[in-house]
Amino acid sequence: MWQRIIPGTMLSTVAIALGVFVATSAHSDDKTPAVDGRLTIEAAKKLKSPVAFSKPSIARGKVLYTRDCTECHGADGKSLVDVVANATDLTEPKYWKSGTSEGEVFRSIRDGAGEAMPPFSKKVEKEEDLWHMTNYLRSLWPEDARPKLQE
């Protein structure tokens, strides 16, 4: 009897282990290709914004930020509001855990960051608007960390 049960049990165990491996690999953030539509960190690092870091873009990003982000990050981006999760202080890039290149910031907004920040890819429908938000967030940084303003 054990001879019949053990091979079936082993097959089930291997199938479960393979399923867990595939499921966790699909959500890896660093080296696994994004099978769920999310950008990997490596892909995000390579992204270049099609939207110039300019006053009009920053102004548009601020409007979007005010609408979608102040609830957790506060009006000034310092995350001093009472929320359930710890929101990142957007004015101090040295503490950012998900990267600070323009592509990584874009990825954090679009796909979410960590356990607490949800993706905004469905709420902010235009990709260009995600880039405006990226520019606005980077405008909150200390002057020596900001990108150079383009005319």
Describe this structure as you would to a colleague.
By secondary structure, this protein is an all-alpha fold. It is built from 6 helices and no strands. The chain is globular and about 40 Å long. The relative contact order is 0.16.
Helix content: 40-55%
Order of helices and strands: HHHHHH
Tell me about the biggest sheet?
A: none
Radius of gyration (Å): 20 Å
Unreliable segments of 5+ consecutive residues: 8-33
Q: Given the helix and strand composition, which structural class is it?
A: mainly alpha
Number of helices: 6
Topology:
Layout: H1 2-26, H2 41-46, H3 55-68, H4 70-73, H5 102-111, H6 127-139
Record keyword descriptors for this entry.
mainly alpha; 151 residues
Describe, in short, the structure shown.
The protein has 151 residues and is mainly α. Helix content is 48%, strand content 0%. The longest helix is centred in the N-terminal third of the chain and has 25 residues, at 2-26.
